[in-house]
């Protein structure tokens, strides 16, 4: 390649990766709007959305299907993928740590990977009644939902999956909007946030992320028990009837997908997810709600297992998407 061609290629790439205002600004009913859009590659588009529900802007990554074109008038089934707690890559994590782009390359589905905050818990924060921000549920399920349908070809068929905090979020959103998701998958999550020790673990996580005031999320787990139950999928399993469900977790022991030369996330984290997820699956069974489960051993709280979980759950998700 000669120098002129090399310079031209570099300029073209830089232009493609430079955020620009959306050509036709897309907004939600409350004024949430796309303020920047970056075409990362042929299938990857990053959005920056100004959100009244958050009182801030937040990023969203899309993987568009083959044949997708802005404003083409065609709609696609939508797969939402939610990230976990304290993830520095945030909305980029699914594409950075898994092969989701290659895996979905031939699937007629729009993949949506929104930021959920370091520990947003996919929830409306109570803040002891002093503020209603951030409201991650409103941002994802109302503002972003409307934006995607109005400007990015999102159809009515949808499925949702997530890992750890995102697995909780997938089940929580499905109980908030019964019938919206044809399939729901939870990987290494704690669907029962009121299980012994979980409220304290949740608060410790909040402290570690810079939220030291007790109860900012849903209040005190005892004084504000009703609010916690309102955000607890375990207490709302009846609202999941009709959705195809997939629940998985490992035992925390180093397994075949772990790099022998690298330390692993403490096994206790995944083993707690396993116990919690088993209890959730048991309640589904007692309630007569079918679910596909994958409780495996060994396996740690790490991306190689969540990549595998996505692949294993794909028949359930695809069925819910109608593809």
From TrEMBL:
What's a Pfam family in this record?
A: Esterase
Cell wall biogenesis/degradation: is it a keyword of this entry?
no
* Keyword hit for Signal: yes
Q: What span is annotated as the signal peptide, if there is one?
A: 1-23
Query: Can you name one GO molecular function term for this protein?
Result: acyltransferase activity, transferring groups other than amino-acyl groups
Identify the keywords attached in UniProt to this record, alphabetized: Signal
What name appears for this protein in its UniProt entry?
Uncharacterized protein
């Amino acid at each position: 390649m000669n120098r002129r061609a090399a310079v031209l290629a570099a300029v073209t790439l830089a232009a493609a990766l430079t955020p620009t205002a959306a050509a036709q600004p897309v907004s939600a009913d409350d004024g949430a709007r796309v303020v920047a859009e970056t075409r990362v590659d042929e299938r990857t588009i990053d959005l920056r959305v100004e959100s009244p529900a958050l009182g801030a802007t937040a990023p969203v990554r899309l993987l568009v299907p083959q044949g997708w074109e802005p404003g083409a008038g065609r709609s696609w089934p939508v797969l939402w993928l939610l990230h976990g707690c304290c993830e520095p890559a945030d909305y980029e994590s699914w594409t950075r740590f898994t092969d989701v782009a290659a895996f979905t390359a031939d699937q007629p589905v729009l993949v949506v990977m929104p930021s959920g905050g370091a520990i947003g818990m996919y929830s409306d924060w109570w803040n002891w009644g002093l503020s209603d921000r951030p409201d991650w549920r409103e941002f994802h399920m109302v503002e972003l939902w409307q934006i995607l349908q109005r400007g990015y070809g999102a159809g009515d068929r949808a499925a949702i999956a997530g890992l750890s905090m995102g697995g909780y979020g997938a089940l929580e959103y499905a109980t908030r909007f019964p019938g919206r998701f044809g399939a729901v998958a939870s990987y290494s999550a704690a669907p029962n946030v009121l299980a012994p020790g979980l409220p304290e673990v949740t608060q410790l996580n909040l402290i570690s992320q810079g939220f030291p005031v007790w109860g900012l999320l849903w209040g005190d787990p005892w004084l504000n028990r009703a609010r916690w139950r309102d955000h607890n999928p375990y207490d709302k399993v009846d609202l999941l009837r009709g959705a195809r469900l997939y629940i998985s977790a490992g035992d925390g022991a180093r397994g075949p997908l772990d790099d022998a030369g690298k330390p692993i996330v403490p096994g206790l984290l995944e083993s707690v997810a396993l116990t919690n997820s088993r209890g959730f699956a048991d309640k589904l069974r007692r309630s007569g709600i079918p679910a596909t489960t994958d409780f495996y051993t060994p396996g740690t709280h790490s991306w190689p297992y969540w990549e595998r979980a996505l692949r294993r759950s794909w028949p359930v998700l695809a069925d819910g998407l109608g593809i």
